[in-house]
Structures are given as structure tokens and as C-alpha cells.
Fold these 2 entries.
Entry 1:
Amino acid sequence: MSRGSFFESVSHYFNRAAAFSDVDKGLIDQVRCCNSTYRMRFPVKRDDGSIVVVEAFRAEHSHHRLPTKGGIRFSPDVTIDETIALAALMTYKCALVGVPFGGAKGGVCIDPRTESEGFLERVTRRYTAELIRKNFIGPDIDVPAPDYGTGEREMAWIADTYKNLKINSADTYACVTGKPISMHGIPGRRQATGLGVYYGIRACLEHQEDMQPLGLTTGVAGKRIIVQGLGNVGYYAAWYLQNEGQAIITGIIEREGGIYNTNGLNVDAVFNHRKAEGTILNFPGAQNFTNGMELLEHECDILVPAALENQITSENGARIQAKIVAEAANGPVDFEGEAILSERGILMIPDMYLNAGGVTVSYFEWLKNRAGVSFDRMLSRHEELVKRELVEAVEQLIGAKFPGDQLPRLIHGPSEEEIVIAALEQSMTKAYNSLHRVWKERKLPDLRTAGFLLALERVAESYRHHGIFP
Ligand code: NAD
């Protein structure tokens, strides 16, 4: 198998898991293949008036549930193979965490770091118009979200373009998730993937029988962690591991190199340093690694690759010293690298589970847009009145008033963000428990195989009930 084909790597994992299932062979083939792809080229004007042809893709891997869902990547390295692989991972991810969507992904071959904001807006709007023309976007059809190189700004452009071209539809904002709050986004979406990574690592570290062979104690506190990528996923994963989990972030790697401090790096201080200086290097008190890949191989308890795919391969797999590789990015370990890590007893928490927090909260955003009302407003007014009476009764009983800052929370209940975060925590923990149970009970080689097997069986089950014409 040639290296570099991301979809082949995903299919390899899928086939390995499928060997443990008794699903009909034809159905296995259907679950594995990508249902539809749209490859487009369109002209866009640069700021100087010159015209450039932009190549872009959208892949809808599985229509067993609708809408399909998946992020849009802006990167000069995007290919159709990569887009299909990421769409396939979305199908399995949604099935694993119980989000009722099929998998999709988009890619646009541009470098957002070197392009002007105006150019990026023109590309995003034209890309959206192309998707509309071919019926590759819509609240019931296919719902994009942010991914590598895109964020709230791009999602706002997509929502606005869709809204203006589809004027008759009531729930237009459900056509895309990861939007700014001011544009019908949902609080908690920005940090969702990174926070989900933290919950996933925490769930994994609770199992003493899995930690013992690695020579690790249970719990996140005190674990020495190296993170690759300080973007949306990496920043929030590192932040929560440090601030909620009390882990020690010893190393951070970005595209220009890495920094290391055995006593720990303050994630916010590093983030601000990079913002101010334009580089992660020369952070006070830290050792510089001009080649970030070297820091990937440094001693630590947990390595969190949160940047791109194919970071751990046959080239460096033998030199990785981490005891756990927590795949926050999609596909950071290729199948050759995976074989080496497995043989060396390194535990991998698979991407399809670990970074599912983003799509989970996207699902909440989509539900909210469909319902046209926020979650905290859905709590009944009656409930609020009952609580107010209760609070007054307790105040009379104790002869004192509740402090003013406690009162709104007691009466109004949790905020929308609190509801979203509690649901995310529950979803990540529950999904890990199913994954772990399947791994152990069915005596599977690893968590990844358990993940692919569970996802295959769930998608196949859904196909059995609907999705196959007689
Ligand atoms: P992002 O663009 O916000 O951040 C990526 C970061 O990685 C950037 O800071 C970039 O400078 C850095 N980077 C690039 N090349 C690097 C290198 N060679 N070494 C070290 N750092 C490098 O992207 P993101 O949204 O954080 O996505 C990161 C990964 O997580 C991708 O694999 C993506 O598919 C996956 N993912 C993202 C989401 C989401 O909600 N954003 C959800 C699920 C999975």
C-alpha cells in the first residue's frame, strides 16, 4: 500500500475491524465506500484584479442518515483523497458518539495564511454558491462546519450566502454550524473539540487496568504532556488539560518549531507570546526545538498531535517515547506508524472518538437552529416560578437572603453554555465506556478496532432499516 493515501489508511483500519463482524459483505462494502463527491474549479479575483482558478471539493461519504456533516478545510495541500478520508472518519465518528448524521467533508486548495480577507470571503461565498447549485448544502442535506484553516468567520460567510440565495427557507441558519454566537451559533462550540479531547483523555485515564501496563497512575493530574498544534483544537485541549485536569504541558509544537520546559509551560502565556512575536520560539524559560518533529519524539506521558494527519509514520514511530498517543487531529498516525506503536505497547486513543466533541456540539447548534429557540429558553417558565417560590421559602426558613450572584442561577437554572458543556461531557464519557467495553468484551486488539467495529455495526444497522432500495 502506497504511503500518503489517507483514505487507504482509513480503509485499512476499517477492513481490520470488519473482519471481526458478521455484517453482510455487500453491506460492509457500502459502508466503506464514499457515496458522492463534487470536485469543482471556479475563478476568483485577487485584490489586484488578476484572476486565479481555485480547486475545491465536497465529499459526502454516507447518506445512511441525513443531513451529512463535516468541516471545511482550507489548505494548499487539500486533495480529493484526503477529503474522502476525512468524510469517512466523520461517518464513523458520528455513529460512535450517537450523532444522527452521515459523514461529509469539504476542502478548498488555498493557503488562508497568505491570502487577504477579501479574497478568502470571495472564495468562501463562491464555494457556497457552487454547493447550493449542486445540492451539496442545506439543513436537511449536508451541513458544513469549521476545520483546519477555517473558523467562525468563514461559517458566517457561508450562512449569509446561503440565507441570501435560499430566501424561502425558515431554518436557513441550520445550513452550517460553528457560526459566531451573534449569527445563531451556540456557546461552547468554539472550545468543543478541544474540551472533548480533554474529556476523552480523562475517561481513558480512569481505567487502572489499562494504565498499569503503561507504568502510569490513573487521573490526568501531574501527567506530562506534549501538544502539537496550537490552533482551535490544540489550544483548547492543552488549556483544559492544564487548567481543569492539572496536567503539566511540557512541550508545545507549532509549524515554526517547538518549545519545551520540564516544569511546564503556561498555555495562555505561550499563545499570547506567539501572537505578539509571530513565533512560538524564544518563549521565556523554554528550550527551543527548531525542528518541531524532534520534540514529537521527546519523553512524555501523553502526546497530543492536534495539527495534521501523517505525523507519526514508519519513519519516526520507533522513536516516539510517549506512553499514550491521544489523536486530537484527524489521522495523525498512519497505519504503518500505528503498527509500530502498537507493537511497542503504546496506547492510542483514536481520532474518530477523541475529536468527536466538535460534531457533538455542532449537532446541538443544528438542533437549536432547527427549533429556532435556544436551549435555556426551552426550560419552562413554570419551572422558573416553582424555583422562585422554593428559594423564598428557604430564605424565610434560614432567616437570610441568598447572595445576589447565586440567585439568578438558582432561579433561572443553567445557562445555554452550561447545558451544552454538560451534554458534551456526558456524551464523551458514555462513548468511551462503550468503546472500552467492546474492546475488552470482544477481545479486540485495540481501541481503534473497537471504534471502527462499533461504527460499522451501527451504520450497517441503520442501512438495514432504511437506505437500501428493494
Ligand atoms: P487550526 O487551523 O485551527 O489549527 C491547526 C494548527 O496546527 C495551526 O495553529 C497551525 O499553525 C498548526 N500546524 C500546522 N502545521 C503544523 C506542523 N507541521 N507542526 C505543528 N503545528 C502545525 O485547525 P484545527 O481546527 O485546530 O484542526 C486541527 C486538527 O483537528 C485537524 O486534523 C482537523 O481535521 C481536526 N479536527 C478539527 C475539528 C474542529 O472542530 N476544528 C474537529 C475535529 C477534528
Entry 2:
Amino acid sequence: MIIDSLLQTLGDLLGPGGLLTDPADTAPYCTDWRGLYHGRTPAVLRPNSTGAVAACVAACAEAGVRLVPMGGNTSMVGGAAVPEDGSELVLSLSRLARIRAIDAIDMTMTIEAGVTLKAAQDAARAAGCLLPLSISSEGSAQIGGVLATNAGGNNTVRYGNARELVLGLEAVMADGTVFEGLRRLRKDNTGYALRQLLVGSEGTLGIITAAVLQLSPLPRQVEVALCGVASPEAALALFMAFRAADPSAIQAFEYMSGTGMALVNTLIPDAGLPLSEPAPHYVLVELATARDDGTLRDLLEGVLAEALETGGVLDAVVAESGTQRLAIWKLREEHSEAQKRAGGSVKNDVSVPVSRVPELIARATSACEALIPGIRVAPFGHLGDGNIHFNLVQPEGADTAGFLARDHEIMDTVCAIVRELEGSFSAEHGVGRLKPYMMPDWRGGAELAAMRRIKQALDPKGILNHGKLLPDASAG
Ligand code: 2HG
Ligand code: ZN
């Protein structure tokens, strides 16, 4: 059997602890965070160096055996889902966990794929710098996966997506050769930006093993407030008020629905609402600046006072300490977990131009409520950059499997509206295994044809993350 001799070779190559074959050990790699996919694999490869990743890929390419590259396994769209037929091997990047260098003068960090985003943020902070990428799953999500999906997150409004932070990249290509592009230059116009092609390719073109990330100055003042607002229009008006006051100060501007917040308050321990009463909608605003002039609180309170006076904001609380800041952020970051605990949920990670967010929320809410009476509409997300997680939770007491069986119907209902509003069906989570069926419709024609040619050129045997991002050859 090809697979037996391949596993023998890989076992010799990876050494003790480098190859997991016992089903009890491989099982955690075969289910995704959402529990949408339950696969099987003969083995999980755990290389501990770029050279070892390259050797694994070369051996698999030669044997024609497919690989699923995997980081923290936190994808919302089955980006690292393992197929059910047991034909593919998992390649885990977790043991590539070194921070190779941090340079506080150049403000760069050279870091391996398996470092968690949280560990990377902490290391940057310890060196007096800020790694400005922040996502709810940062405690488990690993740099390789974060870059492979071009993660967005809470600070995109100010610093851009992961892509904007990548100066250099090291990756193992589908034939086992190593792309050694760990340059740390702000300016480098030397041919195709291969690193940018790999960022966002969801492991289908190469396996990211390390990267050079751009750091920023640490803020010297940070302010966080939670506001209750009457409507999404009021939330957008508040965003514009902060932008008018000082656009450079906005670090995050997050929207949450009353329904979503109530789920967090009920289902997550120690997540109480710090306002006197619940509001129909909420905004979390974080301001930050590297200036040291003590004026940021005045800026925040000035904008809030005016909005409270005109009724744009119904109620607001400003964090008085780091602990309170974390408590407010917890209300936002636990939205996914609360929705998971509430039963089946269907996610729509969509984006529209910021000006159209209120219309998106109004129209998609009516459409979903008409489609499934009793459905719990719980949108939240990054209002400041137009990315709303238009999530739907099953009606209370409904049959979970029956609700989830209607996921395409629900996603298509929301996406039809997103399309009319000139948005995207996947703003930051990627396409993964869940959404390739949407690609012909949204990215068909020349765009999809070019993507297929790129895949064919860089991975002619189709061994990397098969079935993700691109639809079957027969589609589109
Ligand atoms: C977030 O913004 C993540 O918290 C997860 O992107 C969103 O659960 C989701 O849909
Ligand atoms: Zn998000």
C-alpha cells in the first residue's frame, strides 16, 4: 500500500512524537470548531522545522497523497476540514512555534506559523511594540492560519487586514521547495508579490511556515466604551461622530444586536451588562493613541456627551481600568461561543460599504424572519469596516438538525441582499469548504478562471487543501 510505505517514510523523517496515527490522537484534528465537519485521517504530521515541513510535502507529492495544512483549527468555514473518506493526511504547524526575531527599530517581528496570535501579541508588547491584529479566537488561532485566511478582526478599521501587515513570508510550495521570502523591507518592488498571493490562499497554493510582520507603536492612551443605541442608523451616526472628532483615534468600532448581547448575558458566566437596562443595539468603541497628552478621555466623553444629549446614544459606560476594558470586550468576544451554546446557528460573514450597514441589517432581518418564523437574528461585528457577522440562531426549542439543513437557503437569502448592496459573501473568514459553491456565482468568469490557472501552476497535482476555496472543476 502506498500509504503504509509513505507513513513509514514520514515516521522515520519526523521522529518520536512527530507522527500521530492512533485514532484517539488524530480525532481532535478531524472536527472543526463549529462541529460542522467530522472527518478521518490515517495520520497527523507534526514537523518541527521548515525543512521537515518541506520533506513531508515532497514525500506526499511524490506519493500523490493529499495534505490538509492545519494551524489552530479555528476556521468558521471548514478551512482545515478533513475529508470523511480518510484519504488525506493532516499537516499540523503547531510545533513551528518560535519567535525568530523582534526588531524594535525596524518595528518587525519574524515569527513561525505555529505561534498563537495571542503569544505573538504578547511578545511584541514585551518588546515595546504593538502587533495590531486582533480576533476573537486569538488564544488558539495560529499565525500561519491567520495569514493563510488573511484574517481581519477588530482593528481592521485602523490597521487593515492581516495582508497589510505582512512584509515577508516563508512557505513550502506544493513540490516541497521552500520559498524563502523573509525580507523585512517597506519597499521591495521586485516582481509578482508572491507573498500576497499566498496570504488568503487558504493553504491551497503553499504552506506558510514563517512571516515577517509589521509592528506599530504601542498606544500610550486607550479608552473603551460600551454604548446602548436605538438603531443601526444611530450606531453608524456615532461612528461618523468619532470619525469627525479624530479619525486617527478609532482603534475598533464594533456593533452588537440586542438579541446577540442577551445570549451572551444569559449563556456566558460573568458576562453581565454594565448598563442600567438592555438596549435594542450596542456599540463598543475603542480609541487609542501613541500620544501622551492625556486628552483621549476628553475626546471620548465629548463625543458621547453630545450623542447622549441628542438621543443618538441611549446610555453609555466608559471603562475606568484595564479590568473593565477586558470585561467590556468579553461581551463582544463571547458572541460566537454564546451562539454555539444557544443551539444551531448559521453564519454569514458578509461585508457591505459602511454606509449601507443599517440597510443590510434591516433588510436581512426581515427576510430571515419571513423565511423562518421565530429565528433569532443576532448580527454583530466590525461596523467600522462594514463587516457584519449576520448570524442566525435556531428558534428556541426547534430541532437543530432540521434548522441546520436549511443553511444554504438562509445563506442565499442573506447573500442576495448583500449582493444588491454591492458587498461580499465572505469578508474575513474565507471560503473554506463551506462556501466554494458560491464562487462561480460571485467570482465566476475571468476571475475564477485565473484562480484555477494559478492553482494548476503552483499545485499541479492538487495535493494542498483539496476541496477548499475553489469549486469542483465542473463548476463555473
Ligand atoms: C468575530 O468577529 C469572529 O468574533 C467570529 O469573526 C464571528 O462567530 C462569528 O460569526
Ligand atoms: Zn469577525
